[in-house]
Amino acid sequence: MTKPTDDLYIRYMEAFTDSTEHTINCPVCQADQSCVPGEPIHERFARLQDAYTARQKQQR
Questions:
Q1: pLDDT digits (tens, 9 = 90+) for 1-41
Q2: Which of 22, 40, 42, 60 has the fewest CB atoms nearer than 10 Å to its CB?
Q3: What's the CA gap between 55 and 59, in Å, rounded?
Q4: Burial 21-37, CB ≥16 within 10 A → b, else e
């Protein structure tokens, strides 16, 4: 039996990658400041991380 794909986890990990890659290439974000292009990237990661963490807590 194949384990169903966890879409939330996949989206969460993709958002993590996007956020990390942006920070690596953005001097403003590296200085712990917010840049206009990075805001939606980092917000998406934080939102998906919260959703994934909340779901994990519910499953315990």
A1: 345 578 999 999 999 999 999 999 999 999 989 899 999 99
A2: 60
A3: 6
A4: ebbeeeeebeeeeeeee
- Given a contact cutoff of 8 angstroms between Cβ atoms, the answer to whether 44 and 15 are in contact is yes
3-state secondary structure of 37: coil
Higher pLDDT: 42 or 3? It is 42
In this prediction, residue 60 carries a pLDDT of 77
User: Can you tell me whether residue 33 is helix, strand or coil?
Assistant: coil
User: Rounded CA gap, 18 and 20, in Å?
Assistant: 6
Give Cβ neighbours of residue 49 (< 8 Å, ≥ 6 apart): 12, 15, 16
